[in-house]
Amino acid sequence: MSVTDPTTATQAATDATPTAAVLRPPVEAAAEVAHGALLVDVRSAAGRGAHGEIPGATLLDRTDLDALFGPAHAPVISIDTPVVVVCGSQDGSRPVAEALAARGYTVSHVDGGFPAWRDAGLPADAPAAPADPA
Predict the structure, then answer these.
(1) Does the model's pTM come out above 0.70?
(2) Domains in the chain, start-ordered, CATH in brackets?
(3) Are strands 107-110 and 22-24 parallel, antiparallel or unpaired?
């Protein structure tokens, strides 16, 4: 019977497990961005216009990751670049964050989405158009 070093076994399991996207509170996500993570806003142009934008965020159509990141087999953005994804809610950012994590990126997405980011007092530009009251 062999005895396995628990540290080695844990590391092997970690290495074999794909990276999962992590849901973070807005302030923690902003700290990641401050430390060099790429902030990607996947809200529609209408959503950004109605609710505001995050200065410096990279805009991405959530259905076309290759437009920014390149194909999964030949990434344009280094796989070592941490990524923070924001949408109107975590339900919108989750699929994008999970898809990027499956490609090997270290990814977080914002708990509560853009409204929580804004409400936390983090940088956000005012809406370009008044929000629809309906």
Answers:
(1) yes
(2) 22-120 (3.40.250.10)
(3) parallel
